[in-house]
Amino acid sequence: MEQSHTLDQETHYCQSCGMPMDNAEVLGSETNGQKSQEYCMYCYEAGEFKQPEITQAEMMDHCTGFLIKDGMAEEEARSLLAGSLPHLKRWSGQQ
Questions:
Q1: Where are the alpha helices (DSSP H) in 24-55?
Q2: What is the Cβ-side half-sphere exposure of residue 95, based on CA atoms within 13 angstroms?
Q3: 93 pLDDT more than 90
Q4: Per the confidence metrics, is the pTM higher than 0.70?
Q5: Which helix (H) or strand (E) holds 34?
Q6: Which residues are in the Putative zinc ribbon domain (predicted)?
Q7: Strand 35-40 relative to strand 27-29: parallel, antiparallel, unpaired?
Q8: 43-63: buried (b, 16+ CB within 10 Å) or exposed (e) per residue?
Q9: For strand 44-45 and strand 48-49, is the pairing parallel, antiparallel, or unpaired?
């Protein structure tokens, strides 16, 4: 049986890269030092994106490598990201 990879509605995901944020250690930070509830530490620090110029396509390429490393096939990883990234806060409204 083929394993399906979908985003769980109960898990919070980084609104930039889509990474599951299932513990406080991976949360980014706001300008006041508080933990961000929307972005992970790899995307967001001190209230700013770490890669402010990255495009959605570049983010997809970047994240695909991590999903492949975790055992997902490249085609499946790209399909998951293509279906999820455009709906995240950072990318909504962009092509």
A1: none
A2: 0
A3: no
A4: yes
A5: none
A6: 13-91
A7: antiparallel
A8: bbbeeeeeeeebebeebbeeb
A9: antiparallel
